[in-house]
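Recap from last week: sequence in, structure out.
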Amino acid sequence: MMTNNPSLDLVEFVETQILPQYAQFDKAHNMEHVTRVIRSSLDLARRTGADLDMAYAIAAYHDLGLTGPRAIHHITSGKILMADARLKRWFSPEQLKLMKEAVEDHRASASRAPRSIYGKIVAEADRDIDPELVIRRTIQFGLSNYPQLDKEGHWHRFMKHMDEKYSVNGYLRLWIQGSENERKLNELRSLIVNPSKMREVFDRIFSEEA
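Predicted structure tokens:
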């Protein structure tokens, strides 16, 4: 019988064996992040009629490849999922191939649309575009990865990233129409075109994180 939640034994496996691995990643990709992506993925799966177990596992594995180079972490994450024989307990080979492709397709800078609804779900869930959260995560990433920069250096790196990813000409794409992310992205874009207002928000959050 279909339920509105993922299988309990799958949840137990993921929570004990998979999610703790996120403790080693930076603040922008830690346990709080993956938990949010899982929650959003399940909400979108319920809305679209997708398989909840698949959506749940994809979200849980989507950033595990951050153990290696960040630029290819989505590819590495897909390989990690595909190589985990324990998942055969819940999923067929065909399902696992779809899941691997979905993990590969989650990256915001991907030049093409995800190949399945599962890729669209995790890609959308990974893009929680709440302006405050996006700004904080970008600052956290900068502090973790560019410790040599002073505050002005962080500001310029931050704004370059905002423009390249989130502006009207940025590379970020949303794949599920009518999502909450659409509204939030418009809010963020209104800040990007108002640098003085954005600087106020940046200064406040930077002082909290630095």
